[in-house]
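A common beginner's mistake is to predict each chain separately and then try to dock the pieces by hand. The better habit, illustrated here, is to supply every component at once so that their relative placement is modeled jointly.
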Amino acid sequence: MTTNPALARWIEEVAALTKPDQIHWCDGSEEENERLTDAMLADGTLLRLNEDTHPNCYLHRSNPNDVARVEHVTMVCTQNQDDAGTNNHWMAPADAHRKMDALYDGCMRGRTMYVIPYLMGPYESPYSRAGVEVTDSPYVVANMRVMARTGTRALAHIEAGNSFIKGLHSIGELDPERRFIMHFPEELLIKSYGSGYGGNALLGKKCHALRIASWQARSEGWLAEHMLILGIENPAGEVTYVAAAFPSACGKTNLAMLVPPQAYAGWKVWTVGDDIAWLHPGEDGRLWAINPEAGFFGVAPGTSMKTNPNCMQTLGRNTIYTNVGLTADGQPWWEGIDGDKPANLLDWQGRPHTAETGPVAHPNARFTVAAAQCPSYSAKANDPRGVPISAIIFGGRRSSVAPLVLESLDWAHGVFTGAAVASETTAAAVGQVGQVRRDPMAMKPFCGYNFADYWAHWLSFEERCANLPKVFHVNWFRKDADGRFMWPGYGDNMRVLKWITERCAGAAKAVSTPVGMMPSPADLDLTGLTLSSQSLDALLAIDPAVWAREMDDIEGFFADFGPRLPPALRQQVERIREQIGPQQAA
Ligand code: OXD
Ligand code: MN
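With all components supplied together, the output reads:
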């Protein structure tokens, strides 16, 4: 089924191990998708939603034990444990292969094995990379078709002699005790077993485009990042592109599709990507970004016409919903969606919803939809060269400490700012929600190698690019003493983006603080926003004592990386401590 001998051999080996009843090479066509969809409707994997309100939309209810990424059993299997770093779970490659191959032995008996050639990135882009995912899940095939460029054209790319990542996936028995997501970066190989959930099973996404790609990017001189990419158009029609890294479920999709407030006449935001950016040094000394994905796999709860109108207009046709609730007339429903809560809802497990049955949608319920359906989708999203990045923005979900926005003094300070990102955990991964943890560059779950080496790689861009982006940190999630969010967020985040683009153009003012540059209240365009001056002051406040403790915490976190930690990061801690002043040290 392929003229590529390495691919043909690998498929033969995988089939000999997993013993499927049949093998299907996916061509990515409409007819193929229809056939698979019909089969999934027939066996209950999918339910058809209301054809009048939601044409070609489906609901998938996953096994209730399989609703999020599983970081504790996600491993990076390098020959040398230090190469994976303390930021990753590790297993020796030989042990990992033994473990996984025992699980795969005969696991596809009675099933079809699907072979999905895919391309991450625009066709014809020198930055795009191919992969082949083998899976026994038609739900994975349907989702991969939306999220990546799958089928005949991707296979042709491989057959033209381009390298490809191998990804073997089986849902197995969906038994949490027999669930592992293993990465072998030295072999450009992924082995995933026991889960059908997006981040564990759509191998082009987190496994390939972040963990394996970050490994490749280090040796090849580029960056694979957990970042949205957007273009900000000013009333003069000039577009400034920014890439922004936030931990999972912190609003990347909302920010990527932002609609500016009414008072910002003539401003527009263009969506290039909502989750992953591959950044390459360009000949002009700038960093150029492509979005390797072709779709959005976003969190449904909280999405509404108020929080993300572009997203709501993207959904509603040709969409796969996973673990949302269902109205009596067959429409998807989730907490935070527009309108009153209807009667007679079924929850994400298909049970009649009552006050006792918990949320209607699972907090990590998702939609899978083609990016091309998004009204704000950028005309540049398929440009093989990508878009030039003027600003990198880091952010976390922090109820205290971090102000609304900070600008780094230089690249090394920017790398430090990214390395020190902390955020409260969310439902996107299994585990306790709401715990503050360090999530450097929002890559804690996704960096395929030792963070210390990763930061050194980031620092090395100072030598690679003459015209690097400015680096910022934002926090939309600061809370007051009563636990209420102080910043309205969503479309009003445009006010911060405007200041950022103006800083990039050298046109906005900033004040200096011990931890970076910041707008004074007068530097932010707050036209049309009602916000008390007290709240604004609090949002922009830097408490030296709190920041002194923050430096202690960051230093403790860095200590985990031992002598591999780049000295430049330790120097940033010292520099900031000096600026804060010794009297403030906790
Ligand atoms: C995602 C995640 O699904 O970050 O994008 O968990
Ligand atoms: Mn993500």
